[in-house]
Design goal:
Length: about 170
Amino acid sequence: MDNIEKQPSGVSFPAGLDDFRAARDRCAHACRRFNSMPEDATPDVRTSLFLDIIRPARNRKEDGAITHDMTFRDPTLKALTPFVKPPFFVDYGLRLRVGGSTFINRGCFIMDTPVADVTIGENCNIGPHCTLVSVGHPIHPEARESQRSSIGKPITIGDGVWIGANVTIL
C-alpha cells in the first residue's frame, strides 16, 4: 500500500489496484453470507457473520461473548457486537468500528475505504436505508482523469446518536 498519499481533503488511494480489489471482494463475500442468514439465526451465528465483515482475521474463539440479545434479558451486561439487520453492505470493512450497544436497521450501506476510519459509537440507532459514504473522488474532471484515484475521509458518529430512516452521511 505504498500508493497512499495524504492530502488536506482526505487520503488518496488507487482503489483499482489488486490488493484493494481483493479486500473489496473479501468483504462482498462476507456481506453476502451475512445477508443470506435466516431471520431466526441464533445470536452466535449473527455475531460471527457480522464479525466476518469487519474483523476477518480475529480469534473466532472470542465470538460468542456477550451479544446484543443478552442485554435485553440482563441490562447490566454490555454487548460486544451491534445488532445489525440484513441486508447490510460494506465495501472494505477493515476500518469500520461499531459500538456493541448500537442497532443498525435494514438496508444500511457503508461505503468505507482501507485508508480512513468509520466509527459508530455506543448506544446509536441507525434507521433503515441509511448510507455512510467515506469515499469520494476529485471534483474537477481533469483531476479525475489524471489521478484515477479515490479519496478516503473518516466518519465519526458519537455515542447515543439516532440517525433516522434514509439519511445519507458524507
